Structure formats: C-alpha cells, structure tokens
Amino acid sequence: MNVSVKLFARARDLVGREAVEIELDDPATIDDLRRRLAAEYPPLASLVEQATFAIDAEYATGATQIPAEAEIACIPPVSGG
User: Fold this and answer.
1) 80 falls within a domain
2) 11 vs 16: CA distance, rounded Å
3) What is the pLDDT of residues 22-74, one digit of tens each?
4) Does 81 map to a domain?
5) Sheet architecture: strand order including 58-60
6) What's the rounded Cα separation, in Å, for the pair 42 and 47?
7) Residue 80 has pLDDT above 80, yes or no
8) Domain count of the chain?
9) Which helix (H) or strand (E) holds 42?
C-alpha cells in the first residue's frame, strides 16, 4: 500500500518537503513506517525513533495498524524552555 506522510518542523527541514510517499506492505504498523522512513530518508533515522505519529488526527502507537487511505502525520519531538 502507498501512504502519504505529512512532515512537520525538523522532519520537514531534513527532507526538504512537506510530505513523502512511502510504499508499505499491507497490513503495516507505525513501527513498520518508522523503519521504512529511516531506510528511505537516512537523515530522519534518529528523529523518527522519537517522533509521534498520528493517523487521521488521532495519536498512534507503534503497534497501531495503518488503514488504507489514512492521513498520517509525523510530529517530531518539541523542545524549548
């Protein structure tokens, strides 16, 4: 299945785009997506380990299955003071 992942903040800066298309086996989980993003976009490797993902505006865990046609967001950790 082909999924579109919206990138925010540092993830967007590292890739240079607001979204990427990723091919995943069906079924796939968020952890599968993390691995594929790290493999296809090496600058994201350390970031996606700590990033939060959302599917259709709902936060997801690593074990959450990704449905076809889902809207996926990769939200990097935020720091500040």
Assistant:
1) no
2) 8
3) 999 999 999 999 999 999 999 999 999 999 999 999 999 999 999 988 999 99
4) no
5) 19-23, 2-7, 72-75, 52-55, 58-60
6) 10
7) no
8) 1
9) none
